[in-house]
């Protein structure tokens, strides 16, 4: 690799290194502020690198820090090759890359190339119908027989994720452009090879600057359905991106990107966020022989607690359903491809509040047990900031408490449609993305050590009890348990590469499975409930000679599990 920044040369990247890695996601706006403006910044991340090295993670993934109007908190990019002043400067980012590498860690950038900001120079130029970049985006005339810009004149009836319509009228052009997320996020036309080449050049620029890979935002939406690319409407039934995802040229586009940027050639880590992807799609795009991506983010398991296509339509999630889904992905990618493992990220409510029990009695144990189960599956685990010491959902009880565009849009549309306010607020309290975006709780001081100013989002009041400083002092904390899990993955080839087999699939409290490699077998048993559970020893086998590798409780009853207790055992026979 040649680079104009020799000081930023990456740490060693042997082939397949990411299979043993643990990734830590940073949402920069909420991580650490250093200049007192209440917004996290890049120097703040650099200031916390020793903490992350102490935790033991291998890779830092930054949510977007590029220039952006911040319509969707940075996922609307106006300049891919500069840093937004909110977060610092390009020099600050160079320093972060170098400091990360100096500690033996790697750094991954968020890649948002399904769409740009409507303030990106590419889009500004495309608004001129005579521009060479007109075809870089999707432009369509008004529906036949309708006056452009009037209600009902949109090219079709498709809704956007954060707006009533996927089409926005541009008076300067006299036509509509496609933005399947919001009017501020127009979709790029990947059918145009000039678009693809521009994206490849931009990615190469970042690789030459020292980054070690990319997390690719909604990457399976870049190939649109043939009906749309040929000038027609979005196919009907596109709710939840169902008719847009996994288009006919997706594999071609990903393989071309891999080849042109040198993703495999330089052993960069790549993970594709893919809403609507099935096991079959994931298996295909992560098959090493196809040279597309290393892994994808599945969405199936985080959609199981909704009763319809809408995330806001809440439903109970029985443990057997969750176990079966993750086992399906384990089995589907067992001999080709690779899994990513996550419960938390910037788009999901806090895992301990969603899948665990965040009461004072059970928060620590349930956070540990959820982590044990996740990290002992086969794949690359992802830790979201604050997850490593058990941060919880925030007490957001009024619409004025929310800031996320998705949450505010849902409230507006749902209440206008007649859904009672209390029902809307209950859905937001359970599922809003804002829960993941409250500032990291570093200590018990005012504003949790996040900022000396006024934080952009209110700090969770439970920071006086739940914070990184307290967790680091406690050898039995969630933080200490995460450290042990990460060390176990680094040390154990069975954890990294062993075969997965689900046990007790119908048990409503116990999550049990084995990981087997050659003559070593690990048994994971976890009580994912807030009441004790009897161990079904007849089905698990004789465990008298089992060796405890890792556990969450000091006092263990061989015949039962306490509430939210988990154990990793080395067993001879089952």
From TrEMBL:
Residues 25-437 form the Glycosyl hydrolase family 13 catalytic domain. InterPro entries: GH, GH13_cat_dom, Glyco_hydro_b, Malt_amylase-like_C, O16G_dom_2. It holds the Pfam family Malt_amylase_C. SMART domains: Aamy. NCBIfam families: PRK10933.1 (NF008183). Belongs to the glycosyl hydrolase 13 family. This is Alpha-glucosidase.
């Amino acid at each position: 690799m040649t680079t104009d920044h020799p000081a930023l040369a990456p740490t060693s990247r042997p082939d397949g290194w990411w299979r043993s890695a643990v990734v830590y996601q940073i949402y920069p706006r909420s991580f650490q502020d250093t200049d007192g403006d209440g917004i996290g910044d890049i120097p703040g991340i650099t200031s916390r690198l020793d903490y992350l090295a102490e935790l033991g993670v291998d890779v830092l993934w930054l949510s977007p820090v590029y220039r952006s109007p911040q319509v969707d908190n940075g996922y609307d990019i106006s300049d891919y090759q500069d840093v937004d002043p909110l977060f610092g400067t390009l020099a600050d980012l160079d320093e972060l890359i170098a400091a990360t590498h100096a500690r033996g860690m790697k750094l991954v950038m968020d890649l948002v190339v399904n769409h740009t900001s409507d303030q990106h120079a590419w889009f500004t130029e495309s608004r001129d119908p005579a521009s060479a970049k007109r075809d870089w985006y999707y432009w369509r005339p008004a529906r036949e027989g309708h006056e452009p810009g009037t209600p009902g004149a949109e090219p079709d009836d498709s809704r956007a994720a954060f707006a009533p319509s996927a089409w926005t009228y541009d008076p300067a052009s006299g036509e509509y452009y496609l933005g399947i997320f919001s009017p501020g996020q127009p979709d790029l036309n990947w059918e145009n090879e000039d678009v693809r080449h521009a994206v490849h050049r931009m990615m190469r620029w970042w690789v030459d600057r020292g980054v070690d890979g990319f997390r690719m935002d909604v990457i399976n939406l870049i190939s649109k359905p043939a009906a749309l690319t040929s000038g027609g409407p979005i196919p009907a039934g596109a709710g939840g991106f169902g008719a847009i995802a996994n288009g006919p040229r997706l594999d071609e586009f990903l393989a071309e990107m891999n080849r042109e940027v040198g993703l495999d050639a330089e052993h960069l880590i790549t993970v594709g966020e893919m809403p609507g992807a099935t096991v079959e799609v994931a298996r295909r795009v992560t098959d090493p022989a196809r040279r597309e991506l290393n892994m994808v983010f599945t969405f199936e398991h985080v959609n199981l607690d909704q009763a319809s296509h809408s995330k806001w339509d809440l439903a109970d999630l029985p443990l057997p359903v969750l176990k079966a889904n993750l086992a399906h992905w384990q089995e589907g990618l067992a001999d080709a491809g690779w899994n990513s493992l996550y419960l938390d990220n910037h788009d999901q409510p806090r895992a301990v509040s969603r899948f665990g029990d965040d009461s004072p009695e059970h928060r620590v144990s349930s956070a540990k047990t959820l982590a044990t189960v996740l990290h002992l599956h086969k794949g690359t685990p992802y830790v979201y900031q604050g997850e490593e010491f058990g941060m919880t959902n925030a007490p957001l009880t009024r619409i004025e408490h929310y800031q996320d565009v998705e949450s505010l849009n849902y409230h507006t549309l749902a209440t206008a449609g007649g859904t009672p306010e209390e029902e809307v607020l209950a859905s937001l309290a359970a599922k809003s993305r804002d829960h993941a975006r409250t500032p990291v709780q570093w200590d018990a001081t005012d504003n949790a050590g996040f900022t000396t100013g006024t934080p952009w989002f209110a700090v969770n009041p439970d920071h006086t009890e739940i914070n990184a400083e307290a967790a680091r002092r406690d050898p039995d904390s969630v933080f200490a348990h995460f450290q042990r899990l990460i060390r176990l993955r680094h040390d154990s080839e069975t954890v990294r590469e062993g075969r997965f087999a689900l046990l007790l699939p119908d048990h409503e409290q116990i999550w049990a499975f084995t990981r087997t490699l050659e003559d070593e077998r690990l048994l994971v048993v976890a009580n994912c409930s807030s009441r004790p559970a009897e161990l079904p020893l007849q089905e698990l086998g004789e465990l008298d000679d089992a060796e405890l590798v890792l556990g969450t409780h000091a006092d263990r009853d061989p015949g039962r599990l306490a509430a939210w207790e988990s154990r990793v055992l080395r067993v001879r026979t089952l």
